[in-house]
Specification:
Layout (H helix, E strand, L loop, with lengths): L6 E5 L5 H13 L3 E5 L5 E3 L2 H12 L17 H11 L6 H7 L2 E3 L27 E3 H7 L10
Parallel strand pairs: 1-2, 2-4
Antiparallel strand pairs: 3-5
Length: 152
């Protein structure tokens, strides 16, 4: 495992959620520090209604013992993306937990990162999709997220 201290800035606009998350997870495990911007404009492939129904099912997960202590599902686009990446990292050892700390996720494009060159990945671009898709911010709003995107 190489120890890279370089900061990698990724522009997530019109990128496919799962493909981008797998690339980010791989780079995090290699020791890179990753900053993902415009995460609200990430796309999820599939029929919009079907995709929304799958996310809606997550909100109904509860435990039998105490339903209020069931899994807490995030509704904001940045936290949804962060949880997708976390699901692709090993959580049973220190390496996976440490690599997740090297991930920063932002909605919009903060001013402090404008000086970096943002990279994009062709294999994760949404123009490769032939079917329908929905933006992550639309899913968040349908799940009840009432937040706003702050240009920092």
């Amino acid at each position: 495992m190489s120890n890279k201290s370089a900061i990698t800035l990724i522009d997530a606009k019109n990128m496919i959620l799962g493909r981008l998350a797998s690339i980010v997870a791989k780079r995090l495990l290699e020791g890179e520090t990753i900053i993902v911007v415009n995460v609200d404009k990430v796309v999820v492939s599939g029929k919009p209604q079907s995709v929304f129904e799958e996310y809606k099912k997550l909100l109904n997960l509860r435990t039998l013992r105490n339903p209020r202590r069931g899994p807490k599902i995030h509704r904001s686009p940045d936290m949804i993306f962060r949880r997708v990446v976390a699901g692709m990292l090993p959580k049973d050892n220190e390496r996976g937990r440490k690599s997740l700390r090297n991930l920063k996720v932002f909605m919009g494009f903060p001013e402090e990162y404008k000086r970096y060159n943002a990279i994009r990945f062709k294999e994760a671009d949404a123009e490769n999709l032939s079917g329908k898709y929905i933006y992550l911010i639309e899913i968040s709003k349908q799940l009840g997220w009432s937040g706003d995107i702050h240009e920092q």
